[in-house]
Amino acid sequence: MTASPPPHLLIRGARIYDGTGGPSFIADVRVAGGVITEIGPDLAAPDLAAPDDMGATIIEAQGRWLMPGLLDIHTHFDLEAEIAPALPEAVRHGTTTVVVANCSLGLAYGHQRRDGQDPVVDCFARVENIPKPILKAVADKAIWQTSADYLAHLEQLPLGPNMVPLLPHSMLRIEVMGLHNSISRDPDDAEIAKMEALLQKAMAEGYAGFSTDALPFHYLANRPHERSRIPAQYGRFAELRRLTDIVRAHQRVWQATPPKDRPLEVLRTFFLSSGRFYGKPLKLTAVAAIDVASNKGLVVLARLMARLLNSRFVRGSFRMQALAAPFRVWAEGPLTPLAEEIPSLRRLNEPDLDDRAARRAILADPHWQAEFRAMWRAGKSGVSFARLKRILRREDYAISRNLADMEIDYAPVAEWAGRDMGSLYRHWRAVGAGEDQARSEAEAEAFTALDDLASGARDEAAFLIALLAHCDTDLCWSIVSANRDPKVVRDLVMDPLFLPGFNDSGAHLTNMAFYDGNLRALKIAQAENAVAYTVARLTREPADFFGIDAGRLEKGARADLVLINPEALAAYESEAHNQLIQRPEFGYHQRVNRSDGVVDLVLINGRVAWRDGHFSPQLGKDQGYGRCLRAVSAKAV
Q1: Contacts of 528 (CB under 8 A, 6+ apart)
Q2: DSSP per residue over 255-296, as a string?
Q3: Cβ atoms of 167 and 199 closer than 8 Å
Q4: What whole-number distance in Å separates Cα of residue 457 and Cα of residue 376?
Q5: CA–CA separation, 448 and 459 (whole Å)
Q6: Can you tell me the mean pLDDT for 596-605?
């Protein structure tokens, strides 16, 4: 539905952070026609009787912070936009612009269904932990076939926030080679040339950049490919160099994830950002600068790499993304993105979500159990290299193998909620030894089932195998696998060589919830008296990096604005406001954040999208809020 003209608004008495990083100031802001028309003290109130001012709104903002709309630079909202274009979980937290098609996955070429293959479902289901029925519904709507048609499609959607699409590498390979060939052989010269031509075309059309992926645990979901990685993983360095040279020539952004288990390959790949060695700096943003609890060396490597690549000698333009939150990841039984990293646990992620029988068959397999036990016990005792790596916290896997770190959210036995698995394991052993009693009939029945499944074994591995077999996805638990130390998180978020990001919004529906990541960054800044600096890093700085028209609070700028209650922000505890809700649009549940009271007002294109805890009834129905933003400049950062 086409929207009526944007209203006339006057925001009075706010403390303004304009996104430049300069000192804040108190002023009024006038908005008309979707743009900021005036900024200054004591602006005249609109004449509500005048034809031009009829329906005008005066917003009293004394004691509030007014800033440009916030950018979320690592999202997968392109999928949700096809089903629920308002993107409410972005808007309610003050996000007015989202970058989509990260990690080499997206919808630039539509559903790409050919030869019985369903690439959108195959690529997204396990990598982004989105149920297949939702992905099939998205693919059914994705009837365009070219990158230009996708941009035209986005311009017709009643978007909530603005969307900034990247051109995704996996989908580019599928478009040129087909899904099967893209994971089974190298492209020939003609196919490389066609990829270059399509990427060149997308850059000319205004795509903000190009996304690739090299994380070694991103796998396809559909048979017979469930043990193959997504197509971008099979692109060799020579292919990557030729494609990123096009991105470099257009001064656009390359978004990447590293081959984390191969440090020398990480360095070689990211050196493509160098202006000294490749003629011109290539803007590169990578995920992620997080402090992994089991491997403290990764965050050290991230810091060293940022300083090396951005040095005057290398002359790169490199920004790793730092998450402004503890990296808490939820699991439904064995299903969690962290499990994909470990071969034995990855097997449990291969069956479809509703195929409990297949998972239980795997859990009952003696060969699988032996493999799992070996993994679980590695480095926990004796003298070995694995033991040394565990002591030094330089382990290979991000997931903790400490039961005390695994916190139960809900389970078939009500008494288990809120407990860690270590205490539950000890209680199970004590009950079995006659040293304690079950606390309910339900727990007694569950422990009997665990005893039968464990076949007399009482070690941690046997307990976990039995627990997963008995409960499957009815057991929900979480673990903070990174960013446990608030001081380290603060240092990463504030580091000028990083950018706040890696929220992964729109993906991992039941596994993660960092939709409020920008607010968490502002809360850190508030405690450090660095609000102006951080507002710039959430608005103008990423907008300039991606070369888009956003992140400004100045006369003539599009009126994407956010009004924050600083007292509510100071009191906000995100971890306590995490919820699992039902999303009728998806027919599925989703883990979300609730920061109500922190964000008073969100304007998108001069229109009220959120005010005082409520969405505009027209959000997601009328055009005129968010737009598809194309790259319009290439400002160096």
Answers
A1: 490, 494
A2: EE---TT-HHHHHHHHGGG-HHHHSS--EEEEE----BTTBT
A3: yes
A4: 15
A5: 16
A6: 97
In 78-228, where do the E strands start and end? 95-100, 162-165, 167-168, 209-211
Using CA atoms, how far apart are residues 33 and 42, in angstroms rounded to an integer? Answer: 21
Least reliable range by pLDDT among 143-157, 256-270, 397-411, 422-436: 256-270
CA 117 to chain centre: 26
Average pLDDT, the chain: 95
Q: How many CA atoms lie within 13 A of 52 on its CB side?
A: 5
> Which tokens sit at 60?
């009293």
49, pLDDT greater than 70: no
Is the separation of the CB atoms in 315 and 456 below 8 Å?
A: no
Query: Residue 627 to residues 57, 66, 389, 624: CA-CA distances in angstroms?
Result: 23, 22, 49, 7
Q: State how far the Cα of 210 lies from the Cα of 135, in Å rounded to an integer.
A: 22
How far is 442 from 412, CA to CA, in rounded Å?
8
Q: Note the Cα 224 to chain centre separation in Å.
A: 28
The tens digit of pLDDT for each residue in 178-220 reads 999 999 999 999 999 999 999 999 999 999 999 999 998 899 9
Whether the ω angle into residue 486 lies within 30 degrees of 0, i.e. cis, is no
Report the distance separating Cα 157 and Cα 135, nearest Å: 18
Tokens of 567: 């007292």
Inter-CA distances, 480 with 204, 327, 513, 583, Å: 42, 5, 12, 25
CA distances to 20, 486, 492 from 521, in Å: 17, 12, 10
Place of tokens 């709309």: 69
Sheet holding 95-100, edge to edge: 70-72, 95-100, 162-165
Q: Where are the domains of the chain?
A: 70-326+483-615, 330-478
CATH C-level class of 70-326+483-615: alpha beta
Strand partners, 211: 168, 255
Q: Are 291 and 484 in contact (CB under 8 A)?
A: yes
Strand order in the sheet with 407-410: 327-332, 476-482, 407-410
pLDDT at 7 over 90: no
